[in-house]
Write a structure and sequence with these properties.
- By secondary structure, this protein is an alpha/beta fold.
- The protein has two domains: about 120 residues, Rossmann fold, CATH 3.40.50.2300; about 100 residues, Winged helix-like DNA-binding domain superfamily/Winged helix DNA-binding domain (Arc Repressor Mutant, subunit A), CATH 1.10.10.10.
- The strands form three sheets. Strands 2-1-3-4-5 form a five-stranded parallel β-sheet, sandwiched between helices. Strands 6-7-8-9 form a four-stranded antiparallel β-sheet, covered by helices on one side.
- Strand 10 and strand 11 form a beta hairpin.
- The longest helix has 13 residues.
Length: about 230
């Protein structure tokens, strides 16, 4: 999952980005409203965490602009302003949820998961494909009743594959959702992580989920007839 974190306070942005990355999110950070709109226009995000008190354009303006452009991306607003009128303004501008500072980081994660479980969202409680079970909430993976130990990045890559099963994914698409804006497309990191994931998920099993489409990218095969 790739997240745009919009927060102008450097320490808060650094801590939030660190925490989200530790939980498998790829995080880009914008420090003002104009930068947030620019980042949102050139990148494909799964979710936006948006502070209200921002320089240049505040969070309400940013949210309204994104919605006016027709985007339905989930937006969680963060603010130190807890007045009812502010919460109403945030929701009326198009935010999906509103969290007042200070907040518990565990609650933030739970709210992000809830937003991504919306009917038009991306994150089910679990994903089961044949003998592979991905527990999204616990970030645990089993195949044939055996627990598979994955690193945070390996898990994020697997979940992205599984959510896009039977669709060929290019390197660019994978980088867009599993890595952040600092990723070097000319590196071999994607190939390295896919090789590691194959060893953990597919080795020892006759059915291979992760397959290469030469010249196109990779596909996670859920339907063996596809």
């Amino acid at each position: 999952m790739r997240v745009l974190l919009v927060e102008d306070e450097p320490n808060a942005a650094r801590m939030l980005a660190k925490g989200l990355r530790e939980h498998g999110y790829a995080v880009d950070v914008a420090s003002d409203g104009e930068e947030a709109l620019y980042q949102e226009s050139i990148n494909e995000y799964d979710l936006i965490v948006l502070d209200v008190m921002l320089p240049r354009k505040d969070g309400f303006e940013v949210c309204q602009t994104i919605r006016d452009a027709g985007s339905a991306i989930p937006i969680l607003m963060l603010t130190a302003r807890d007045a009812v009128d502010d919460r109403i303004s945030g929701l009326d501008s198009g935010a999906d949820d509103y969290l007042t500072k200070p907040f518990d980081f565990g609650e933030l994660l739970a709210r992000l998961r809830a937003l991504l479980r919306r009917p038009d969202g991306l994150l089910p409680e679990s994903i089961t494909i044949a003998d592979l079970v991905i527990n999204v909430r616990a970030r645990r993976v089993r195949r044939a009743d055996e627990i598979i130990q994955l690193t945070s990045k390996e898990y994020t890559l697997l979940e992205y594959f599984a959510r896009n099963a039977d669709r060929v994914l290019s390197r660019g698409e994978i980088a867009e959702h599993v890595w952040d804006q600092t990723f070097d497309l000319f590196s071999n990191s994607i190939e390295v992580y896919i090789q590691r994931l194959r060893r953990k998920i597919d080795d020892g099993h006759s059915r291979k989920f992760i397959q290469t489409r030469r010249g196109e990218g990779y596909v996670f095969v859920a339907n063996e007839e596809s």
